[in-house]
Write a structure and sequence with these properties.
380 residues, Leucine-rich repeat, LRR (right-handed beta-alpha superhelix), eight-stranded parallel sheet, alpha/beta
């Protein structure tokens, strides 16, 4: 009985070994991998990198990978499913033959120096879920054909040189939850957005125009909005802060001139709002204090004037420096209140230098009198 069991075990082992040895990557995938390596400048492929280990004298998907194909790709059976190059500073272009890797679910080529346009053929991959090309030197526009990636969940092409406007057809990417196109040269208005987005990052582009309601309609899962360092303008609408799941908003370094009067809310997820470095004038919006979860508020370097709302003392982080504010309640400095931040570089008459909030000096009296047309009589 034991002999029979042993013979069956050896038979099973030999079949398994034969199966492993028998794995042969499909020829179209091998051709694509060869083209991808060939499109990279050989001088930027040091011996310690993934691409250096791509030696096509062995099969890419056949284990064990002892000396060849040590990293940079993963397979399922005889098809390549992940292309994840190491951040080694590879330069060159991305071969259009990447489209032959039909079973790819993940592409991550981030933190290299690849340049030129993103090949249109890439947008035909039917199973792609993650596309990360951040921190390279890709240029050109984002074509409407990107919406062919029906299964895409993560799109990150930040820190490149993409230009042109964003296509409204992005709404067709119904599975997309994370979109990061920050630090490019994108222009035009904010387009209509995919309804399942959780994170939206378009920081440091040249986007312009007003914040319209249509692009954000139906985005019930959106938690993070990063639109700082653009050229957006007009009044920030009150509905914008009522997006159901919204937790973090950064609209700093734009050209906004006002904040619409906010409705008091009891059920809201906002934790942090940054509206610094805009052109917002008038009084500080007091209703921000009604947002139950809001802990950090930044309105630095705008054109705010008048008193700092006493209700702001409930925030744990408060940055109001660089405005023309004139009044601050002593209650901000009681032992029961713990606030980090700054109210310096304003026109406050009583701001104790012993407080962290007051470390920055206030504006000279003559500047404040000029802003208030000589009506500010008291000494600072």
């Amino acid at each position: 009985m034991s002999t029979t069991f042993y013979l069956l075990f050896l038979l099973l082992l030999s079949i398994t070994a034969a199966t492993v040895v028998g794995i042969t990557t499909v020829s179209s995938d091998i051709a694509a991998l060869k083209a991808i390596k060939s499109a990279v400048n050989p001088a930027t492929i040091p011996s310690y990198t993934c691409l250096y280990s791509w030696d096509f004298t062995s099969d890419p998907c056949s284990p064990p990978h002892v000396t060849h194909f040590l990293c940079g790709l993963s397979c399922s059976g005889n098809r390549v499913t992940q292309l994840t190059l190491d951040p080694a500073g590879y330069s060159g272009t991305l071969s259009p033959l990447i489209s032959q890797l039909l079973q790819l679910t993940t592409i991550d080529l981030s933190d290299n120096k690849l340049s030129g346009p993103i090949p249109n053929s890439l947008f035909t991959l039917p199973n792609l879920q993650t596309l990360i090309l951040g921190s390279n030197s890709f240029s050109g526009v984002i074509p409407p054909s990107i919406t062919n990636l029906k299964k895409l969940q993560t799109l990150d092409i930040s820190h490149n040189y993409l230009s042109g406007s964003l296509p409204n057809s992005l709404t067709l990417l119904t599975e997309l939850t994370r979109l990061d196109l920050s630090f490019n040269k994108l222009t035009g208005p904010i387009p209509n957005l995919p309804k399942n987005l959780i994170q939206l990052a378009l920081k440091s582009n040249s986007l312009s125009g007003y914040i319209q309601q249509q692009p954000f309609t139906g985005l019930t899962q959106l938690e993070v909005i990063e639109l700082s360092q653009n050229s957006l303008t007009g009044t920030i609408p009150g509905w914008f802060f009522l997006t159901p799941s919204l937790q973090q908003v950064n609209l700093a370094n734009n050209n906004f001139t006002g904040v619409e009067i906010l409705k008091p809310v009891n059920d809201n997820s906002l934790v942090a709002v940054d509206l610094g470095y805009n052109k917002i004038s008038g009084y500080p919006p007091a209703n921000f204090s009604t947002y139950p979860m809001l802990a950090s508020l930044t309105l630095s370097y705008n054109k705010l004037r008048g008193r700092i709302p006493l209700e702001y003392k409930r925030f744990s982080r408060l940055f109001l420096d660089g405005n023309y504010l004139t009044e601050l309640s002593p209650e901000f400095f009681s032992r029961k209140v713990s606030i980090s931040g700054s109210v310096g570089d304003n026109c406050l008459r009583k701001c104790p230098v012993t407080s962290e909030l007051c470390l920055k000096k206030q504006k000279p009296l003559w500047i404040c009198r000029q802003v208030y047309h000589g009506k500010l009589k008291l000494k600072l």
